[in-house]
Automatic annotation (TrEMBL):
Matching InterPro entries: Ca-permeable_cation_channel
Protein name per its UniProtKB record: Uncharacterized protein
Swiss-Prot/TrEMBL keywords: Membrane, Transmembrane, Transmembrane helix
TM annotation in the entry: 30-48, 68-88, 100-123, 129-146
Organism whose genome encodes this protein: Camellia sinensis var. sinensis
Domain of life: Eukaryota
Tagged with keyword Transmembrane: yes
Length: 150
C-alpha cells in the first residue's frame, strides 16, 4: 500500500502546484475581470491541459493523438485561430476607425476559444460525453451570434 499512497500524494501535489501556478498567472496578468473571455480561457485551458497530462501520465504508448486525433487537431487549429484573432483584436483596438472589424474579430475569438475548451474537454471525459459537449457548443455559438447581432 505504500507505493500507491505515495503515487496519490504525488498526484495531489501536482494538482496543487498546477492550481497555484494557474492562480498566480491569472492574477499576475491582471486577468481577474470576470467579464473577460480571456480571463476565463486563461484559467480553463491550463487546467484542462494539466488534467489531460495527469490522465495520460502512466501510459507512454497511448496519447490523445492516438485515441482522439480529430479532437486534438480541432483543438490545435482552434487555438491557433484564437491566437490570430487575439492579435488582430489588439491591432484593431489601436485604430478606432476599424471598430466593425474589431467587433467581428471578438466574435470569432469567442467562438474559437470555446471550441478549444470543448475539444479538450471531450478528450478528457469519456467518449459518450463528446457529442453532447459539441452539441452544447453549437447551442452556445448560436446564442452568442444572436446576442451580439441584436
Amino acid at each position: 500500500m505504500a507505493p500507491q499512497q505515495g503515487t496519490q500524494a504525488n498526484l495531489f501535489g501536482q494538482i496543487n502546484v498546477t492550481f497555484l501556478s494557474m492562480t498566480h498567472y491569472y492574477f499576475s496578468q491582471g486577468l481577474h475581470s470576470s467579464a473577460s473571455c480571456h480571463a476565463v480561457l486563461a484559467f480553463i485551458l491550463p487546467a484542462l491541459h494539466s488534467f489531460l497530462q495527469l490522465n495520460y501520465q502512466g501510459n507512454k504508448d497511448i496519447s490523445p493523438f492516438n485515441t482522439h486525433l480529430t479532437s486534438v487537431c480541432v483543438a490545435i487549429a482552434s487555438f491557433l485561430l484564437y491566437c490570430f484573432a487575439y492579435n488582430a483584436e489588439l491591432r484593431f483596438s489601436e485604430n478606432h476607425c476599424h471598430q466593425t472589424y474589431a467587433f467581428n474579430v471578438c466574435r470569432g475569438m469567442t467562438c474559437f476559444g470555446w471550441l478549444v475548451v470543448v475539444s479538450l474537454a471531450s478528450i478528457l471525459f469519456s467518449n459518450s460525453l463528446g457529442p453532447p459537449l459539441y452539441f452544447l457548443y453549437i447551442l452556445f455559438l448560436a446564442g452568442e451570434l444572436l446576442r451580439r447581432r441584436l
